[in-house]
Write a structure and sequence with these properties.
This protein is α/β, with parallel strands linked by helices. It is 38% helix and 25% strand. It has a 6-stranded mixed sheet. The longest helix is centred in the last third of the chain and has 21 residues. Bound molecules: adenosine-5'-triphosphate. Adenosine-5'-triphosphate binds next to strand 2 and helix 1. Pfam families: ABC_tran.
């Protein structure tokens, strides 16, 4: 049987007296789209950063494709993992095309097919020659996703990648991400504060609180009431909003 895409095995991480991640064991199967949801400070980013070795675990082990992430060189690991942050950090002095192509170029790999990558994230090919400052926030996030996919990564990690976008752009980009996930056969982990986004995009929703996993359910099961109090409190927010909106209909 093929190893899972990611496995955190009894992982811990402390910062002084703060226990950011408190003994997490979690397996992400290849092809899954997992949303990691929870209040600010619950440990989501720390858990995600362990996957590409931005943060080493204080205890436990993180495996990608069955291999301990600590065992090989970090650059080789990171080439297999696309990572998208809220503040995407495009290189301001490089064009969009140069930004997208930087990963394969630095690795000495064949050049990225920038046109195809722009097509994938639904940006016009003409933006290839623009500078990042000439793009909207949503366009910049699309470039960030294209750059993350450029080395041919099959594992995509997104940390509040849509956090700074207006709701319409955010919704469109979320849908595009889900379509890309399906088209390219990706394994995707999306950290988000937004339970509605998690329920609409993911195949599985993992809820964190105080460094621990408190629920791990499908969207359907969560909507049917599973997952316990912390999860249901989060599900209750979009549900109550939908009910209040429905009441406004004359
Ligand atoms: N580099 C660091 N130094 C000290 N404390 C840290 C560091 N990184 C994270 N923490 C602490 O660890 C805890 C978990 O943080 P983390 O960023 O993983 O949470 P999060 O769920 O991703 O939060 P948010 O949704 O606000 O991004 C928090 O209490 C945070 O203050």
């Amino acid at each position: 049987m093929a190893p899972p895409a990611i496995r955190w095995d009894r992982v811990e991480r402390r910062y002084g007296t703060v226990v950011a991640v408190d003994g997490v064991t979690l397996t992400i199967d290849t092809g899954a789209f997992v949303a990691l949801v929870g209040a600010s400070g619950s440990g989501k980013s720390t858990l995600l950063r362990m996957v590409n070795r931005l943060v080493p675990p204080g205890a436990g082990q993180v495996l990608v494709g069955g291999a301990d992430v600590a065992s090989g060189p970090a650059p080789a690991l990171r080439r297999r993992i696309g990572y998208v942050f809220q503040h995407i950090g495009l290189f301001p002095h490089m064009t969009v095309a140069q930004n997208i192509a930087i990963g394969p170029k630095l690795a000495g790999d064949p050049p990225a097919d920038v046109g195809r990558l722009l097509d994938l994230v639904e940006l016009p090919r003409a933006v290839a020659t623009r500078m990042p400052a000439e793009l909207s926030g949503g366009q910049r996030q699309r470039v960030g996703i294209a750059r993350a996919l450029a080395p041919g990564a099959k594992l995509l990690l997104l940390d509040e990648a849509f956090g700074a976008l207006d709701p319409v752009t955010r919704d469109a980009l979320g849908r595009r991400l889900r379509a890309l996930h399906d088209e390219l056969g990706l394994t995707t982990v999306l950290v988000t504060h937004d339970m509605a986004e998690a329920l609409l995009l993911a195949t599985r929703v993992v809820v964190m609180a105080a460094g621990r996993i408190v629920a791990d359910e499908t969207p359907g099961a969560l909507l049917a009431g599973a997952g316990g109090d912390a999860a249901q409190a989060l599900v209750g927010v979009p549900r109550a909003q939908a009910a209040r909106l429905a009441e406004l209909v004359p």
